[in-house]
Amino acid sequence: MRISYIVIVLNGMPFIEFSLKSIYDFAYEIIIVEGAVKDHIFSANPDGSSKDGTVEFIKSFPDPEKKIKFIQGKWAEKCEMQNAGAKVATGDYIWLVDSDEVYKKKEIETVFQLLRGDPDIVQINFFWRTFWKSFDYYIHSNVLLNESRSAPRVFKFTSGAQFINHRPIVLSWPRKIAKNPYKVTGKTMLRRGVCFCHYSYVFKSQVEDKVEYRRRRCPQSYQKWLSWYTNCFCPWTIGNMDELNAQQSIYMDDKKSYTTRYMEDHPECIQEYIEQFRSKNIDVMTK
Q1: Which parts of 89-141 fold into alpha helices (H)?
Q2: Which of 141, 33, 156, 36 is nearest to 91 (CA)?
């Protein structure tokens, strides 16, 4: 079974290292599509490339089995980036991975077992666990556990298939590829223990970048994002967590959302980084 991973990225440090490490051994090929979409050009070099060393890291990433294909450019939207990867994909399945998503080995093995056991599966969705200003706390939200919020990630693939939407992600096939095709829900995968780690809210600089991107892409919702950033994200500490949980919507679309302690293990490939980070930045994540 051949899995073509497609990773779209702009300024993906430091998490792209662990994203790639988590999938490398399982991949038939890894197609990395790098560069800025039009509303994110503010965060890129003049040629549209990453400013934070992402390109240099990708070019130096160990690839003993020659699995990595690297595509760069300026893009209209993320859907275009996904299609750039799909055009050169040669696997039986496409697995989309954002550069701040990291998987545990057992989660990937569960997906492989599921696909091997049922060739009629055409799509698998996942929920994610979004970490909040640290590696020790994450967002709990019942809204985020609504099936409509699950992330389409794995797709049965055939030549000519094309992504026609990014929010939500939709893949269109040129022909029927299974007699009784069906999609596996995020809730089904959650019951099987698959819920990937999402680290995009760990560092303040990355959240600031998201807020500015929202200002340019969705100016009508910018004030909502700015208020959330100013009144919720920035002031949060472990010491005032309970107070903020009572006063603020940690996840903007869920008034009952809150931050809670993470009690499980992180993916194997990022554990050493997290321990080193904790030892050097004891107080950073709580201020």
Answers
A1: 105-117
A2: 156
Answer yes or no: are the C-beta atoms of 82 and 167 closer than 8 Å: no
With b for 16 or more beta-carbon neighbours within 10 A and e for fewer, the 160-180 pattern comes to ebebeebeebebebeeeeeee
Do the bridges between strand 258-261 and strand 121-132 make them parallel or antiparallel, or are there none, so unpaired? unpaired
User: What are the residue boundaries of the structural domains of the chain, listed by start?
Assistant: 3-199
CA–chain centroid gap for 98, Å, is 4
Integer angstrom CA distances of residue 287 from 46, 201, 284: 34, 14, 6
Q: Quick one: three-class SS letters along 24-74?
A: HCCCCEEEEEECCEHHHHHHECCCCCECCCHHHHHHHCCCCCCCEEEEECC
Q: Which two tokens stand for residue 210?
A: 């998201």
Q: What is the CATH number of domain 3-199?
A: 3.90.550
pLDDT of residue 248: 85
What whole-number distance in Å separates Cα of residue 27 and Cα of residue 90? 12
pTM score, whole prediction:
0.94
What span, in angstroms and rounded, lies between the C-alpha atoms of 136 and 266?
10
Q: What is the per-residue pLDDT for 142?
A: 94
| Residue where the block lists tokens 């596996």 | 184
Q: Helices 15-24 and 105-117, interaxial angle, to 10°?
A: 40
What does DSSP say about strands 182-184 and 137-140: parallel, antiparallel, or unpaired?
Answer: unpaired
What's the pLDDT tens digit per position in 17-73? 999 999 999 999 999 999 999 999 999 999 999 999 999 999 999 999 999 999 999
Contact indicator for 24, 105 with CB cutoff of 8 Å:
no
